[in-house]
């Protein structure tokens, strides 16, 4: 089963689509700052979070990542897309996230010290209007639009 988190106008047929807004079509209305999410443990094999995590209160970000980990099946994929430039121009953005944010969820030291959920970073890309670039190459191409990170869930008993 696939989850489209914060679907906005991007309603995906065959997925469970979640949004807080009454102004868009969704299957589940839910404020992602409210924990727990209305889903079972290990319910989803794939979660797409496109342009939604920057709308989460900063104080709730780790809790939201723990919830996403909880509802993902072992080995499940979390696909995150966030803006890179002009993040603070949107008054609804509450959280600044970068590609580097997600390395804390991969590093065993931070997972242990801070009790973070464990993920493996499968890929990191920078998206422009027309194509995607590896992060290292994007440094040479300054017209970044978004970044995307693909994470794979690691169960706590696998650490």
Give a structural overview.
With 159 residues, the chain is α/β, with parallel strands linked by helices. It has one domain (2-143, 152-158): 3-Layer(aba) Sandwich (Rossmann fold), CATH 3.40.50. It has helices at residues 61-71, 108-114, 135-138; strands spanning 2-5, 16-19, 28-29, 44-50, 72-83, 119-127, 132-134, 146-153. An 8-stranded mixed β-sheet has the order 3-2-1-4-5-8-6-7.
Spans of at least 5 consecutive residues whose pLDDT stays below 50 are none
Strand order of the largest sheet: 3-2-1-4-5-8-6-7
Query: How many discrete structural domains?
Result: 1
| Radius of gyration, whole Å | 15 Å
Q: Please trace the helix and strand order, writing H or E for each element.
A: EEEEHEHEEHE
Mean pLDDT: 90
């Amino acid at each position: 089963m696939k989850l489209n988190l914060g679907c906005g106008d991007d309603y995906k047929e065959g997925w469970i689509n979640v949004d807080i807004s009454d102004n868009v079509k969704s299957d589940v209305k839910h404020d992602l700052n409210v924990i727990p999410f209305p889903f079972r443990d290990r319910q989803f094999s794939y979660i797409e979070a496109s342009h939604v995590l920057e709308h989460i209160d900063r104080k709730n970000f780790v809790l939201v990542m723990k919830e996403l980990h909880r509802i993902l099946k072992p080995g499940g994929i979390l696909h995150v897309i966030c803006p890179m430039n002009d993040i603070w121009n949107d008054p609804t953005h509450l959280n600044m996230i970068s590609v580097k944010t997600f390395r804390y969820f991969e590093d065993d030291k931070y997972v242990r010290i801070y009790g973070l959920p464990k993920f493996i970073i499968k890929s990191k890309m920078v998206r422009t209007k027309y194509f995607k670039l590896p992060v290292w190459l994007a440094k040479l191409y300054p017209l970044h639009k978004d970044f995307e990170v693909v994470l794979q869930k690691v169960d706590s008993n696998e650490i």
